[in-house]
Design brief:
This protein is of the alpha/beta class. It folds into two domains: 132 residues, HAD superfamily/HAD-like (Rossmann fold, 3-Layer(aba) Sandwich), CATH 3.40.50.1000; 55 residues, no CATH class. Helix content is 46%, strand content 13%. The protein is built from eight helices and six strands; from the N terminus they run E-H-H-H-H-E-H-E-H-E-H-E-E-H. The longest helix has 18 residues. The radius of gyration is 16 Å and the shape is globular.
Amino acid sequence: MKIGIDLDGVVIDSETTFRVYEEIFDIDVLKGNNLINREEPKFQARYNWTNEQEKEYIEKYFLTVSKESNLMSGFIGVYNLLKKQGHEFVVITARGGFVKEMKDDAIRLLDENNIKFDKYYWNIEDKLEICKKENVDIMIDDDWKIIKKLADNAVKTLYFRDTNLVRLEENEYIKEVNNWGDIYRYIREH
């Protein structure tokens, strides 16, 4: 099976770390409560920040978040099992867009853990285009908007949903997972 895979929030626990620093920034730096929708995966939609405030947040915290993040619990074991079984992994990530050094930091983290994916696509805006180009059998992502777009275009997805994020109705193209054990079960059964 050819598996498309996002990094942040799927392989790397950065999304949880981002949310911690978003709260610190909103409360301590902006001295307010600008949270408008905690179900949104990206800070641009979670908070009512100005463009200048978003830029300040990126400059102040993105590299910190990247350096503090780790691999998701259970990822290494499941990844190694799936690779032994012959599955192929194609990284399709937006990482490296806002802050170029975050790509290098992800590579460092993967190298430290001896993780080598089959192919990498960095700084990708349109994951649908790459999924189609690569003819992936399934895409694993944590952003409900990306999952919905892929599913609406007949790409099978595993929605790695964090606790607070929008719940999507499952169908033949969307299956919710919450950990790497769920992912392993789904792939082994299909």
